[in-house]
Each structure stands twice: as C-alpha cells, then as structure tokens.
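Both lines are retained for reference:
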Amino acid sequence: MINRRAFVKTGLAAGGLALGAGSGALAARGDNPLDALIPDYNLPEEQLPRIVRLRPGFKPFEVHVDPDFFYLYWTLPNNTALRYTVGVGMGSLYHPGEYYVGMKREWPTWVPTPGMLERQPEIYKPVVQGLPGGIDNPLGARALYLFTKENGDSYLRIHGTNDPATIGGAVSNGCARLVNDQVIDIYDRVPIGTRVKLNARSEGGPAHV
C-alpha cells in the first residue's frame, strides 16, 4: 500500500502509466484531526486513481467530469491526467457546463439546497439548519464549491463521501462525489480559480485513450 504523501510525490511521475494496485488508499490522509476517522474503503482496482493518456485538446490543470463513464480527470502536462472514479448527478439533476472552483472547505458544514427542500421536503426539512462536518456528513471530508461567472455559487460541489457503494453511478443531487481519502487528494491538488467542465452526457466516449 502506498500512502497519500508518497502518492502525491510519485503519482505524477508515472508518465501516463497506471498506478499500482493499492495506490487509491491514500492512507496518510490530511492534517485535520477528523481525517483519522476515515476508513480504508477497499475499492475495486478499476476505481482507484490512475494516470492516463488523454485525447488531444485538453489544457493542463483543469477538472473534467465524464458522466457517462463516471470519471473525473485532473488534467496534467504532456497530454495526461489523473483519473478518479466518481458518482454524479441523477438524471436531470446533472448540470453540464463550465464552472470554476470558487471556494474550498475541509470537513464542511452541509445545508440542503433550495432545490432539495422543494423536491423532497419530508427528507430535508428536518435538517434545514444543516449538519456540522463529520464522517457521515453528506459532503464528506472536503468540498470544492463550483461557481459560475454569471451567478456565483451554483450549489454544485465536488465532495467526499463515506459510502463507497455510491461511486461509479448516477446517485447524487447534482454533485460529483469521491470517497473521502480520494477527495482529500484532489482537494490538495486543485487551487481556487480552477476551471471545471461538467461534460454533457454522450459526448463521444471517455477523454482518455
């Protein structure tokens, strides 16, 4: 097993090659005391982060989400990317478009959005004041808040989850989710201001080759 700090150091040096089995555990976690609560999720090998080669046309240091194959790419120089497996929004709750990371939070407080309250008041009204950060918080260990230039906060997030069964499917109210140890890894890589592209469904196959 490779720990998270070693993964950060060696993962980018893989030069377009798949990372070794076990590298998705990212066991070192971050520096927040709550990070010690994160279990090892033991995801199948195909859902571990991998360095992949991209089709031409991607700029480095952007985030791209592919909802058909449930991949999130952190693009890198030399036409490569670090690919994660994610859960995405259900049906019409997935909102393709261009965003940017407007804010980042560790173990964020979660508050149901107006849309969630409208769709399922019986579920969300009891928690309308929100929930503090913690291992079972719906936003998990980290959250990247997606903004648009026109409207500011979109209420969409790239965030963590403590439920690995929701990875690799259309499961959420619109956000992209990774297991908590992997969201810490991408949180540490992606700065505020980064361009995020939520690609439309059926855009012609995965970004990698």
